[in-house]
Amino acid sequence: MNDIEKNKRREFVSELMNKYVPDRTSLLPILQDFQEKFGYIDEYSQQLIAFELDIHPVEVNSVISFYAFLYDKPVGRNIVRICKNIVCEFNGSKEISDAVIKEFKINPGETTPDGKLTFEHVNCFGLCDKSPSMMVNGEIFENINKESALKIIKELK
Amino acid sequence: MNKLFERKNRTGPVLFSEYEKGSAVKKALLTDRDDILLEIRESGLRGRGGAGFPVSVKWMLTAAANSPQKFVICNADEGEPGTFKDRVLLSEYPELVLEGMIIAGYTVGARKGIIYLRAEYSYIKDFLQSKIEEMRSDGNLGKNICGRKDFDFDISIRLGSGAYVCGEETALIESLEGHRGEPRNRPPFPVNTGYLGFPTVVNNVETLASVPHIINKGGEWYHKFGTGKSSGSKLFSVSGDCRYPGVYELQWGITIKELLDLCGAENTKAVQIGGASGICIPESEFSRQISFEDASTGGSVMVFNKNRKMIDVLQNFMEFFTEESCGQCTPCRIGNVKLLEGVNMIRNNEYSLEYIEKLKELGETMKIASKCGLGQTSPNPFISILNNFKDEIFGMN
């Protein structure tokens, strides 16, 4: 990471320290905000955050690794999550996932080489009454099928 | 306004009945705290997340604790597969939930409330925040609520980050404190040693939403609904093979058969009650009641018709638990993996019935030896599906 990128992160971390009470209880919101801006929480920034909160960097990494929605590695510009709860599965979510895997040549948890797309499975979105469901960059799509899901994903930038 | 947050045409005995915004808070703040506790006790209200712990006991213990600070936490980490009732409450009836929190805060002596909203529901956050601000400007949140000089209460929202186990109350508290969501040993219970070590009430969204109606209409009124031991109404999230999936508010004690008729389910083979961690009920037992004393659920009701393979259901659930186990205690971390291996052995016809019996025993051990509800309930589908659908599953090879 070059110094310009490092400085951007350093500045943002200090902004976050003003936004939140700078102690451990704020760790999750800080990580969530940081990730929203930079996509993932790199090791350098983990160290900065740890230092500011007066905890060991491994504590920060341990928290990131615990939560499914936090990343310590680069992810795609778009994150597509498909629900794989049994109700969605029976309503065709497996076929939709298979279509995504085939079309974009990535497995769940992977990112396309062009950095456009990260594809994941999620256990239950709580949208079983409108199943199958999908979340794209935090926005939900209900009652999807193979065609509509692929169309939505292909239109992403 | 987004269509999601428009109130649909819903009817029900308690939660989906008429309610005048702000009325319960106003009434509660003119009532003695002990009288509120008695009213809640009379209602027989039990925790709606699934465990069914009496709310009045939780509140009384927190109220009795001597501490400079106390907290009320709304558990909106609705992660049990097949459950979406809290989504409906938060997006269509937010005032009930927020007012329930205020009344809880007043009763136990807390000044701060936190809503722990699961990451999968992050799209509800801004809407909830706007409702909180609305209540602040109405004088129902903030300092000197309803003109009472001795009562301040405010609510903030915290987002989860995708961990099923954080629905367990002590894991939720760990997460709020900035740690991995690993459940704590209990005791001490949160009512004594909760968020940041202070006495804390953690209640499910639906539990809190029931409170304003109990305040307005009385505990006795509430207790008239249901079966007595399971008093009041319950929201059921019905999904799967039925014509009308959705959220139904019904009285405890309804039979599975009645619920299936209501939601337009036909040709039903099995009903999974209580989500992945619940039990799977075959057609021969559809006359059973849904209640804490019979088939208990936190809300999830998943319907499977005769075209579905129960081994698929079981595999899906066991994959879920192996992923969502926090890994802290051995029975849950290893046990779920072994049960999933067993499911795959059955699929590949590489099992002996003797070994499957051993795995069921392991499941029983997990129920006793696991640290929290996740590992204590994750063997439920394994045991109930293999017992109730023996012929289908072991006859398929």
Proportion of residues in helical segments of chain B:
40-55%
Q: What's the average pLDDT of chain A?
A: 96
CATH superfamily of the largest domain in chain A: Glutaredoxin
Poorly predicted sequence stretches spanning 5 or more consecutive residues of chain B? none
- At CATH level 3, the topology of the largest domain in chain A is Glutaredoxin
Q: Provide the number of structural domains of chain B.
A: 3
Shape of chain A: elongated
Distance between the termini of chain B: 54 Å
Residue share in β-strands of chain B: 5-15%
CATH architecture call of the largest domain in chain B: 3-Layer(aba) Sandwich
Report the order of strands and helices of chain B: HHHEHHEHEHEHHEEHEEEHHHHHH
Radius of gyration of chain A: 18 Å
Largest interface comes to: A-B, 37 and 51 residues
Number of domains of chain A: 2
Oligomerization category of the chains in this entry: heterodimer
CATH topology of the largest domain in chain B: the name is: Rossmann fold
Report on this model:
The complex is a heterodimer of chains A (157) and B (397). Chain A is α+β, with helices and mostly antiparallel strands and 157 residues long. Chain A has helices at 3-19, 27-38, 43-53, 57-66, 86-104, 146-154; strands at 78-83, 117-122, 134-136, 139-141. In chain A, 50% of the residues lie in helices and 11% in strands. Chain A is elongated and about 50 Å long. The mean pLDDT of chain A is 96. Chain B is of the alpha/beta class and 397 residues long. In chain B, helix 1 (23-29) runs parallel beside helix 5, helix 1 (23-29) crosses helix 8 (205-217) and helix 4 (85-92) packs across helix 5 (94-108). Chain B is globular and about 70 Å long. Classes of the chains: A alpha+beta (157), B alpha/beta (397). The interface between A and B is large, with 37 and 51 residues.
